[in-house]
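I am still learning, so would you mind making up any protein sequence you like and the tokens describing how it folds?
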Amino acid sequence: MRCLNDDGTVKGILVVDIDLSNAIEFLMGDGKRKKLQPFFISVYSLIAGVLFIVVGVLLFSAASEIATLFDSDSYEDLHLKPFGIIIFLTLALAVFDLGKTTLEEGVLMHKVIFRQSSKRPTITRFIAAILIAVSIESLLLMFKSVLESPEYVMNAVAMMAAAIGLLIGLGVYVYLGAKAE
């Protein structure tokens, strides 16, 4: 803004320099959250790190099971051993995806917490990982019930019904969330 003398000559120019992000933070009342952000990032990092350690333990367990496949003297239950390996690998995949999502969403990305659309991808990825794990586990239980233990068939059907319900719920959530945008 120009400041003029009485005769119309320029006396000076008034300049205001503001930090836009701090001004928006002040206007939206987001100052306390921003002060706690380093704490939140530390907690998310710790949780993601522990999840990755769990993934390592699950992968080690799967590798140990694979080693026992070739090391065993008895091959009578050989057809059941791959189920344990698949369970360990499926859990490792689900936990890894959860840790990766936690690291990406909580530490690496800057999200606008006031927008619902910033939360939707996190929830969708988390539920999708659980859905995949439940689906694989229900299939494994179904195969096991056919091969060895028929009493587990109803549990397998119930798990598959839960996976279908989860898939329908996720579809409704994504549809309604996209419609709200």
